[in-house]
């Protein structure tokens, strides 16, 4: 079946260190992946995305790596700050043929990132 | 510019009752998707509305239904509520069924069924 999963449910890092959050997916037809950040009491917030024709994409303090061979992607956060504490989700975005161009998101269960002072 | 607005923010219902949740999309967005997020889980896709029609549906029973209005706002209706329907219900809006960077989530409605 299709699934998008996270390797670890929780991750604690010291402020200023780099964080790495991992995600595995099972559908080799997946062509687009998104990382979301969800703070308590809020909806998911877009962080960064990557298409399957790329291996790496960088944003401000964040980098996403995609390894299609082992169906794995990771989110790296540089110089982690207290404001980075949240739950992080990877999501697969794939068009369904029966719906034309319509797309839906399939989320993993998330990793709770805690930044220690 | 307001983002996605959902109402109410919290709701308590009794098992067997019916509930209606509301969503106003971000200005300029014409597509609304609904997700259910159980505690400690990732959001699960319920359905998507575009041009006032349901375009896609996830693995949810017919007790879950929706509607989109000409102004692009949307409602999610759940009939015959079960205890397991307790969750955070998220609305996300986008342009022309797109997702990714242009996909904006609201803060959700917390539904508790007792």
- Structural class label of chain A: mainly beta
Looking at the structure, the CATH topology of chain B is: Immunoglobulin-like
| Percent strand of chain B | over 45%
Question: In terms of per-residue confidence, which ranges of chain B show pLDDT below 50 for 5 or more consecutive residues?
Answer: none
CATH class of chain B: Mainly Beta
- Terminal CA distance of chain A reads 41 Å
- Rounded to an integer, what's the Rg of chain B over CA atoms? 13 Å
Span from first to last CA of chain B? 37 Å
- CATH class designation of chain A: Mainly Beta
- Largest sheet, strands/sense/barrel of chain B: 7 strands, mixed
Order of helices and strands of chain B: EEEEEEEEEEE
Into which percentage range does the β-strand content of chain A fall? over 45%
Instruction: Tell me the major beta sheet of chain A.
Output: 6 strands, mixed
The tally of helices of chain B reads 0
CATH superfamily descriptor of chain A: Immunoglobulins
What kind of oligomer do you see? Answer: heterodimer
Give the overall average pLDDT of chain B.
Answer: 94
Biggest interface pair, counts? A-B, 26 and 28 residues
Explained architecture:
The complex is a heterodimer of chains A (117) and B (114). Chain A is mostly beta strands and 117 residues long. Chain A has strands spanning 4-6, 10-14, 19-25, 32-38, 45-51, 56-58, 62-67, 72-77, 86-95, 103-107, 111-116. Chain A has a single domain (4-116), classed as Immunoglobulin-like (Sandwich). Chain B has one domain: Immunoglobulin-like. Chain B is 0% helix and 50% strand. Chain B is built from no helices and eleven strands. Chain B has strands at 5-7, 10-13, 19-24, 31-37, 44-50, 53-57, 64-68, 74-78, 87-94, 104-105, 109-113. The model of chain B has no long low-confidence stretch (mean pLDDT 94). Classes of the chains: A mainly beta (117), B mainly beta (114). Chains A and B meet through strand 5, strand 9 and strand 10 of A and strand 5 and strand 10 of B.
């Amino acid at each position: 079946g299709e699934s998008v999963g996270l390797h670890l449910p929780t991750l604690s890092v010291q402020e200023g260190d780099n964080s790495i959050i991992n995600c595995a997916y099972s559908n080799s037809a997946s062509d687009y992946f998104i990382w979301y950040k969800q703070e308590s009491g809020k909806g998911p917030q877009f962080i960064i995305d990557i298409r399957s024709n790329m291996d790496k994409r960088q944003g401000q303090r964040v980098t996403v790596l995609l390894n299609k061979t082992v169906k794995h992607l990771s989110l790296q956060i540089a110089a982690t700050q207290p404001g980075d504490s949240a739950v992080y989700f990877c999501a697969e975005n794939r068009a369904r043929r029966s719906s034309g161009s319509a797309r839906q998101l399939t989320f993993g269960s998330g990793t709770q990132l805690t930044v220690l002072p | 510019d307001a983002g996605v607005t959902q109402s109410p923010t919290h709701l308590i219902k009794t098992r067997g009752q019916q509930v209606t949740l509301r969503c106003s999309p971000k200005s300029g967005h014409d597509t609304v998707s609904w997700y259910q997020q159980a505690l400690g889980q990732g959001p699960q896709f319920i359905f998507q509305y575009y041009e006032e029609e349901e375009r896609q549906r996830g693995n949810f029973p017919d007790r879950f239904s929706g509607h989109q209005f000409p102004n692009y706002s949307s409602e999610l209706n759940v009939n015959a509520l079960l205890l397991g329907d307790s969750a955070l219900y998220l609305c996300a809006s986008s342009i022309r069924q797109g997702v990714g960077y242009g996909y904006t989530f609201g803060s959700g409605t917390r539904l508790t069924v007792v």
